[in-house]
Design a protein that fits this description.
alpha+beta, 2 domains, 6-stranded antiparallel β-sheet, two-stranded antiparallel ribbon
Length: 402
């Protein structure tokens, strides 16, 4: 089984950009949590065809919900929200799949956060109970600075103090021919001039369709290193005119969109999207109360990309600061569970998703599912442990060398 998992990992990542794929493989070697984040394809393939998870109502889901896929983002209305902020695997699917992946991530990352197994299981129960209770209530809300509490409230206050101008100054510099994006070889890499020209040409062509095409005039392009699962795909940072450089300029994130690796394992018919970028844009608009700033889809040659305002990497909670502080983590998991339920309810009745009454009724009558969730996630966390041990051996022997 473990040998087979290594082959599947290699096959899944075949053809990706070698320089950042090496980083991905190295991160996967570091710990089980990063390994889990990078192997969503194994996660879905391993769910049995007749699983109780597939009996839950259908919603538009993140598809890869783990602890670090919830964080802050600045929306089009310039308000900072706390919600899901990565949608690479999003699709129409039974709602419990996101819950299952989230609590699995808690169990797998327990040692990182200095949690005992018992404490990690307690946190999972908190999440499960809060999620079902919120679904049963059937009401929708949002989590922003004014409505948050505890760690998330403090986090959002700190994030809201950051300005776009300060962020811009930290990541750009003045050169004779204008402003450029800083290349640090950790988060950014240089782009060949031919590729840079290609990107600028396509973005300019796309921008002509917008009401203010001058806003998107590109001044510089660099390759971006970010995330875990998506490493190896094309991803860039664009410095655009905005309201005029230096401080009126904007940094944009341009990310290649691959098909959701969950789709082939989910027994739910998906819409015929124009491309993968349209899927990401439309599902985000359905799940979130307000979409991220400057969200759009764009084509480069034969690939589709999602474009949005670049968000600082720091705008994700560093969970290691809790160091076993279970009570503070409980509050976090309660808030995350409410967000998950609100997101499910917000997407109800859209292009195949179930209506709110179905979610409410399911929450009332699903006591057996609540009991099965934790055991199933615990069992799979043990599977991840076996996969990771096998992966580490193979990695150390050079099996994943590029």
């Amino acid at each position: 089984m473990q040998k087979d998992s290594n082959e599947k990992i290699k096959n899944f990542n075949r053809g990706r950009y070698a320089k950042t794929l090496k980083i991905k493989y190295k991160l996967m070697r570091e710990d089980k949590y990063k390994f889990l984040r990078a192997t969503t394809h194994l996660f879905y393939e391993d769910i049995p065809a007749g699983s109780f998870l597939f009996d839950s109502p259908c919603a538009w889901i993140c598809g890869d919900l783990h602890l670090e896929n919830l964080g802050s983002f600045k929306a089009d209305n310039r308000v900072t929200y706390f919600n899901v902020n990565d949608f690479d695997e999003c699709l129409l699917a039974p709602c419990l799949l996101d819950t299952y992946r989230l609590i699995t991530s808690v169990l797998v990352s327990a040692s990182n956060f200095k949690l005992t197994t018992a404490s990690a299981e307690e946190l999972c129960r908190v999440y499960i109970d809060t999620y079902f209770r919120t679904l049963q209530q059937g009401y929708i809300s949002t989590l922003e600075k004014e409505t948050a509490r505890g760690v998330i409230k403090k986090f959002l206050k700190n994030v809201s103090r950051r300005t776009r101008k300060d962020f811009l100054k930290a990541h750009t510099y003045k050169k004779d021919d204008g402003y450029k994006i800083t290349i640090d070889e950790t988060h950014t890499l240089p782009v060949k001039s031919s590729k840079k020209k290609e990107i600028i040409t396509h973005v300019n062509k796309w921008a002509k369709q917008k009401s203010n095409p001058g806003f998107y005039e590109v001044h510089d392009v660099v390759f971006r290193i970010a995330g875990t699962s998506s490493l190896g795909l094309e991803r860039y940072v664009l410095l655009v005119e905005g309201w005029g450089p230096p401080n009126g300029a904007f940094l944009l994130d341009l990310k290649e969109c691959a098909p959701s690796c969950a789709a082939q394992y989910i027994p739910v018919k998906q819409p015929l999207w124009r491309d993968e970028a349209e899927r990401l844009v439309e599902v985000q608009k359905r799940i979130l109360s307000c979409p991220p700033a400057l969200l759009a889809d764009i084509h480069l040659e034969q690939k589709s990309f999602i474009l949005k305002e670049l968000q600082p990497l720091a705008d994700r909670i560093n969970y290691t600061i809790f160091n076993g502080k279970v009570n503070k983590l409980k509050n976090m998991l309660e808030d995350m569970a409410e967000i998950s339920a609100w997101d499910n309810l917000r997407t109800s009745g859209r292009q195949g998703s179930d209506i709110a009454d179905e979610f409410i009724n399911y929450a009332i009558t699903s006591s057996s599912a609540k009991k099965q969730l934790l055991k199933t996630a615990f069992d799979y966390s043990n599977t991840i442990d076996l996969y990771h041990k096998s992966y580490c051996k193979a990695y150390d022997k050079g099996y994943f060398q590029l």
